[in-house]
């Protein structure tokens, strides 16, 4: 018999049991859907506002009753709703990275990576993995050019392994140092070119050592408004590369996943020469280059926050110039560990390369000049001798980074990162015995040995404060030490006994040695204010000290301030920042040279006079913009203004004061400006979402003007630095017409007395556009077109041919016409006036170089379903891809290629250099590549 008390007890237990059934402790883990990495700080919220966040392992617990829906959010990822009815204990919530512009995470400063909606400057982010899934890229310029508004990049000439020229925003500087600095996994990368055994135009690019398939993403910080946190070398912007940590997008925890990629292809000369009387020999000189590469990667995901990655890459690339070939072998490994408050990230990469760069330009003994100059080719050097000469570099490169992070009590986050980039390059030039070069037929040999070293060490402390409801402040303090060291020694030998090329046997020998060290220490403080995830204010200040600045300059400060305000699908932003360009390594140092010995000791004479007060060139930049993401659109618009001061001008010294040469001073000033547009549009999608058309457009307008050069014109004609003109403008005497003798016979061109502006090396407008068409879910067609308007090129190839040869067709045709006309007649004078425009005057050969190029077209087929069916699930994914590059070019430039750079890109140079010169550059190639990708 049930008593009253027992009944009460049973009811109470039943109530408690029902409550327990209705209100559970729901537990789980939040992961990145692609990488399976735990997401720390993800917000798990109930409809009543109760919420929790995931811990250091991505795990969470929350009270919830049946029927509740949990909303899981994380910055940079799409929101996900989880129904409690379908939720079990230890559930896995996989979040997908956001596709909208405002949801993308980018490297905002040296201090942190942030959601793009929180950034007040225009920082571009590219998913390299997705881009390579849609098309082939053999180097960084293939991958980036046209994809980023405000930046133009191209190879300096058409051979394999050549340097890349960067045009970043307005180019408002007097310096030749115009390349962005590069960071890979947080480590400063040495991206200087190597020309120890050949000319600058035929230099080896350090960016060759970046295997494209190992790159996961690239963030491009384009100017001081965003790059101020990187300090005294970041005025040209910063490229931040993050390497892969996972083989496939669908790696499963606890299992080994793998991917493989094989590519084969060929390349040929993109355009035939038609500009000469004898085009046959120069067109027949070029060959078909054959390319093959293999890439494999493996991932072992042991547990959340515990993952190992390994990759191998083999790349053989043949150029269109005989003997031009690049062979690279690369290994890379990465390990990531996160346990509670501790995190460790380690990456190491090794590249071994062997590149042959036959010299084809900038000299009487080079191939293209000997084929271009005269109707009878090989006038200065025989083809037999040229083909016997060798120019080779053996290259070994090791990069490594180690990051350690720990969260102290009170949520103080400590982080340190150490990294190195070690590069050893051996160069060899050889002229065998018995081959005549100039007056030497007894052989020549040059051996070079170069060691480049970059060491980076950062430490950082940060903490977030809750100032009030919806108001949060993150304070960060960072210290960075960068040491860059380069040493090179070279032995030059000639005149060998027959068939002996040992350096010791040479009758003539000389030795060159150079060394360079740069040490920079920067301290950066940042305050980041967040109101309600809508208003973001970031203020920073960096202090830099370097051994390259004058001893009377203690340190340099670079401030920054940015504001971003989000309103639904739009963001308004503005930013201000300052950064610099360091002086040339010897600008701060005075030295003397030993010129012999006396009874009293060494005899010293003045060598170079440095400036104890020399400072880095300073660029100030302010920008404002709008990011808008209405339905099916992503639109970005940015306007900026730049002011460069303290530009370094080299003032001639008076020999009467005991010095020769010049002395650097901070007196130059340049203004720059521009507008940038980026637009992505999903133009069409079918109802089943199995087909769509996506269009992208980038467009830029930019300009600059030199405001102060210390009252002098600085010349490397036809390039000049002149007040009131663009930097490195083309400036020379114009050809005013034909000149005749007393009998009316044509005797040459007449030039103006005054110099005139003829053009500039940078375009007024440039950009790219293209589309991606997806059909039947698995077939894709994508294209990219690049274009530019307003740039000019100094065609020094044709200038030299006109004065030193007889092979320039338009000139030789006019000379033949003139010879057929009667002196003094109108017909004679008409031809003479045209002929005057072909004379060897620099003004005649500064040409417009507008162009429209079909840069790439790719056809891809996703064979995942077919591969899984044929292999019974052993293969998880497969894709076939065919890419053609540089298929079509429309240009008003008369040379073979409008995008050329005779100085081999841009580099750190003391004093004024030259820009946009075509000095018998090798033509660009068109390339065809087929690729098979497989995932296991």
Describe the fold and architecture.
By secondary structure, the protein is mostly beta strands. It is 10% helix and 52% strand. It is built from eleven helices and 46 strands. The chain has a 22-stranded antiparallel beta barrel. It has a five-stranded mixed beta sheet with strand order 10-15-16-13-14. A hairpin with a 3-residue loop joins strand 26 and strand 27 (535-546). Helix 9 packs antiparallel against helix 10 (826-836). The chain starts with a helix and ends with a strand.
Average the pLDDT over all residues and give the rounded result: 89
Q: Structural class, from secondary structure content?
A: mainly beta
Unreliable segments of 5+ consecutive residues: 12-22
Q: In this structure, how is the largest beta sheet organized? A: 22 strands, antiparallel, barrel
- Shape type: globular
Number of helices: 11
Cα-based radius of gyration, to the nearest Å: 32 Å
Secondary structure tally: strands: 46
Strand content: over 45%
Distance between the termini: 67 Å
Residue share in helices? under 10%
List keywords for this structure.
single chain; mainly beta; five-stranded mixed sheet; 22-stranded antiparallel barrel; 11 helices; 936 residues
């Amino acid at each position: 018999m049930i008593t009253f008390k027992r009944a009460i007890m049973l009811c109470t237990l039943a109530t408690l049991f029902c409550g327990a059934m209705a209100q559970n402790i729901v537990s789980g883990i939040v992961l990145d859907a692609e990488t399976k990495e735990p997401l720390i700080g993800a917000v798990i919220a109930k409809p009543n506002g109760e919420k929790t966040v995931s811990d250091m392992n991505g795990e969470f617990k929350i009270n919830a009753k049946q029927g509740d829906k949990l909303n899981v959010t994380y910055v940079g990822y799409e929101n996900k709703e989880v129904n409690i009815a379908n939720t079990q204990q230890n559930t896995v919530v996989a979040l997908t990275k956001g596709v909208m512009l405002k949801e993308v995470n980018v490297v905002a400063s040296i201090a942190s990576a942030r959601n793009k909606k929180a950034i007040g400057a225009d920082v571009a982010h590219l998913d390299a993995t997705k881009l390579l899934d849609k098309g082939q890229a053999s180097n960084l310029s293939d991958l980036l050019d046209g994809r980023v508004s405000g930046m133009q990049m191209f190879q300096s000439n058409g051979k394999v392994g050549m340097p890349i020229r960067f045009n970043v925003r307005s180019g408002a500087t007097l310096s030749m140092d115009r390349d962005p600095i590069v960071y890979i996994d947080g480590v400063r990368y040495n991206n200087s070119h190597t020309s120890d055994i050949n000319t600058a135009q035929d230099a080896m690019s350090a960016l060759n050592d970046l295997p494209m398939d190992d790159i996961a993403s690239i963030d491009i910080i384009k100017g001081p408004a965003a790059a101020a946190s990187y300090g005294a070398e970041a005025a040209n912007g910063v490229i931040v590369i993050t390497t892969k940590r996972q083989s496939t997008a669908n790696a499963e925890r606890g299992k080994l996943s793998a991917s493989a990629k094989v590519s084969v292809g060929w390349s040929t000369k993109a355009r035939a020469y038609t500009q000469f009387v004898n085009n046959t020999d120069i067109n027949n000189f070029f060959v078909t280059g054959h390319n093959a590469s293999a890439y494999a990667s493996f991932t072992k995901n042991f547990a959340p926050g515990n993952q190992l990655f390994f990759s191998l890459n083999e790349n053989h690339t043949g150029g269109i110039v005989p003997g031009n070939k690049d062979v690279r072998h690369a290994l890379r490994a990465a390990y990531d560990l996160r346990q509670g408050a501790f995190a460790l990230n380690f990456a190491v990469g090794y590249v071994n390369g062997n590149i042959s760069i036959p010299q084809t330009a900038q000299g009487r003994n080079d191939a293209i000049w000997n084929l271009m100059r005269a109707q009878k080719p090989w006038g200065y050097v025989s083809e037999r001798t040229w083909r016997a000469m060798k120019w080779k570099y053996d290259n070994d490169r090791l990069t490594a980074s180690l990051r350690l992070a720990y969260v102290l009590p009170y949520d103080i986050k400590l982080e340190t990162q150490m990294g190195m980039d070690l590069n050893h390059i051996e160069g060899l030039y050889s002229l065998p015995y018995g081959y005549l070069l100039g007056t030497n037929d007894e052989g020549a040999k040059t051996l070079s040995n170069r060691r480049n070293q970059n060491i980076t060490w950062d430490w950082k402390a940060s903490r977030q404060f809750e100032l009030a409801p919806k108001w949060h402040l993150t304070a960060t303090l960072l210290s960075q030490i960068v040491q860059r060291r380069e040493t090179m020694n070279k032995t030059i030998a000639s005149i060998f006994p027959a068939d002996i090329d040992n350096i010791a046997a040479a009758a003539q020998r000389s030795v060159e040695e150079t060394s360079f060290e740069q040490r920079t220490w920067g301290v950066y403080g940042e305050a980041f204010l967040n109101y309600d995830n809508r208003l973001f204010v970031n203020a920073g200040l960096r202090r830099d000290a370097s051994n390259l600045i004058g001893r009377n300059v203690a340190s340099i400060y670079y401030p920054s301030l940015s504001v971003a305000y989000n309103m639904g699908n739009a963001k308004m932003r503005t930013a201000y920042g300052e950064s610099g360009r360091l002086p040339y390594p010897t600008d701060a140092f005075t030295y003397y040279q030993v010129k012999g010995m006396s009874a009293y000791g060494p005899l010293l004479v003045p060598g170079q006079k440095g400036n104890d007060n020399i400072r880095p060139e300073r660029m100030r930049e302010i920008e404002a913009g709008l990011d808008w993401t209405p339905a099916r659109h992503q639109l970005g618009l940015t306007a900026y203004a730049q002011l460069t001061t303290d530009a370094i001008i080299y003032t001639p010294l008076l020999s009467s004061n005991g010095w020769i040469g010049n002395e650097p001073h901070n007196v130059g000033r340049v203004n720059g400006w521009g507008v940038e547009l980026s637009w992505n549009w999903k133009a069409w999608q079918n109802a089943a979402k199995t087909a769509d058309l996506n269009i992208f457009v980038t467009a830029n307008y930019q300009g600059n003007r030199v405001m102060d050069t210390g009252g002098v014109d600085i010349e490397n004609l036809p390039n000049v630095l002149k007040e009131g003109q663009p930097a490195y403008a083309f400036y020379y005497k114009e050809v005013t017409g034909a000149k005749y003798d007393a009998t009316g016979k044509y005797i040459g061109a007449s030039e103006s007395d005054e110099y005139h502006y003829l053009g500039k090396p940078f375009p007024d407008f440039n950009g790219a556009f293209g589309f991606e068409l997806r059909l039947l879910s698995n077939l894709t067609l994508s294209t990219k077109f690049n274009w530019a308007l307003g740039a000019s090129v100094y065609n020094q190839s044709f200038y030299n041919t006109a004065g030193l040869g007889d092979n320039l067709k338009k000139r030789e045709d006019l000379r033949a016409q003139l010879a057929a006309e009667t002196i003094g007649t109108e017909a004679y004078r008409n031809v003479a006036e045209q002929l005057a425009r072909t004379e060897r005057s620099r003004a005649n050969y500064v040409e417009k170089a507008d162009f429209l190029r079909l840069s790439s077209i790719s056809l891809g087929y996703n064979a995942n379903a077919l591969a899984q069916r044929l292999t019974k699930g052993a293969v998880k994914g497969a894709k076939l891809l065919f890419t053609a590059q540089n298929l079509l070019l429309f240009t008003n430039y008369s040379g073979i290629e409008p995008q050329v750079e005779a100085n081999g890109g841009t580099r750190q140079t003391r004093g004024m250099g030259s820009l946009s010169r075509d000095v018998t550059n090798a033509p660009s190639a068109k390339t065809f590549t087929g690729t098979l990708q497989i995932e296991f």
